[in-house]
Amino acid sequence: MRSPAPWIAIVVLAVLCPVSASAWGTDGHKIVAVIAADNLTPAAQSHVASILGASGEKRAIATAMEAASIRPDTEFRDEDRRTEPWHFIDICLQDRRTDVAARCPGGNCVTGKIDEYSKRLKDGNYDHFGAAGDLAFLIHFVGDIHQPLHAATDADEGGNCIEVDSRAKNLHAVWDTTIVRRLEYSIDSGRPETTAHKLERTYAEEREADSWIAADDIAWESNQLARSDIYGALRIPVEPCQPTVNVCLNPLGRAIELDSSYLEHADATAGHQLAKAGFRLASLLNEIWTQPVGPKDVRNPANPYLAPLPSSKTLALQIIGNRRSKIYAWPGCGSYDTMAPENRVLFPSREPAEREGYRAARNCP
User: Fold this and answer.
1) pTM of the model
2) Which residue of 24, 54, 202, 336 lies most exposed, with the fewest beta carbons within 10 A?
3) Which long-range contacts (CB under 8 A, 24 or more apart) does 265-270 make?
4) What is the per-residue pLDDT across 301-322, written as a single tens digit (0 to 9) for each?
5) Mean of all residue pLDDT scores within the chain
């Protein structure tokens, strides 16, 4: 018998190895961020670049958004334990659409926080996490809400209490990480960026339809997917549900067997959800920022995470670099007003431009 192909062996390891339970895992959130970065308008690009300290090139923005997307799990959870319930909403399997709002008391869940951080970024009214932290939360939470088990519970903490017949911690962990890793290895060699671009091409025709809708509507959509593709497909019985009561049940009373047919269908479902999350995140950010960064944004003292001004003089706009000549300029100097649009690269300050090998135009003051 021939030995299995290397990628098959890797997929097997991905299914068997323990995984953590953070929505979509690190790679899933990066996939969403890359897809979103590819679909930002120039105005939104300028704000994201300015807040995250990246150049205006798409690849740099995507890299910065990838890094931001995982901060709520890698940094903010440990810094502030109050953020833990912000990642999900416990919608019972018996609930109706009209029950969704009541499942987020005080806005202390993923839908409430998406609404809050969208408004903070639009108004420039940041909390103690600053502009970069608030944007990181929004990127992350849009990914979270598209993971079906982050919007459903069967008295099992969104699948966290249901054992599975692999070395994954539980059913929730399988959907967070194992399935995403399987998807990546089926596409390439496990790289989030490659997977993102593949999913973006696969679902390109849905991009326009996947514009931003209300967070509550997305949560309900994810809940319905959990009912059909997780609880229903695995024949998990429906338990009496009281999200405010701290219970952790395994309705089956045993470990669930996940066969290849189920996992293959789950791969496809997860891929579709990741693409949808990326398109919708871009749509949301495009709605938040309809005009490019201006003087008010750059000088906003309430935003310590915005890059500093490029010089001591007051500037009307950001620095623009010429990708061909590797020269940058600001209003009133160099070729700022005459540079061909296809050659323009936005920078929030001198420093990012010079880090990427650009130099100031010689006729700039």
Assistant:
1) 0.77
2) 202
3) 265/229, 265/233, 266/174, 266/175, 266/179, 266/229, 267/179, 267/182, 267/183, 267/186, 269/148, 269/225, 269/229, 270/28, 270/175, 270/179, 270/180, 270/183
4) 333 443 333 333 333 346 788 8
5) 84
Above pLDDT 90, what percent of the chain?
Answer: 63
Q: How far apart are CA 231 and CA 318, in angstroms?
A: 51
Residue pointed to by tokens 């099992």:
156
Domain ranges (residues) in the chain: 6-288, 307-360
Strands 359-360 and 319-322, sheet pairing:
unpaired
Whether residue 23 is predicted with pLDDT greater than 70 in this model: the reply is no
Q: By the 8 A CB rule, do 187 and 198 touch?
A: yes
Q: What is the pLDDT of residue 40?
A: 96
Which CATH architecture does the domain made up of 6-288 adopt? Answer: Orthogonal Bundle (1.10)
Q: What angle do CA 201, 207, 210 make, to 5 degrees?
A: 140
Question: What is residue 175's DSSP assignment?
Answer: I
β-bridge mates for residue 359, sequence order: 327
Tell me the C-alpha distance between 303 and 290, whole Å.
Answer: 19
Indicate the pLDDT class of residue 329, thresholds 50, 70 and 90.
Answer: confident
Q: Are 246 and 155 in contact (CB under 8 A)?
A: no
Query: From CA 360, how far away is CA 280, in angstroms rounded?
Result: 37
**The token pair that represents 303 in the structure block:** 């935003």
The CA–CA distances, whole Å, from 91 to 36, 82, 95, 223 equal: 27, 20, 7, 7
Rounded Cα distance between 241 and 221, Å, is: 19
Per residue in 128-157, pLDDT (tens digit) is 999 999 999 999 999 999 999 999 999 999
How many other CB atoms are there within 10 angstroms of residue 139's CB atom? Answer: 29
**Residue corresponding to tokens 């973006």:** 200
The CA distance from 170 to 130, in Å, is: 34
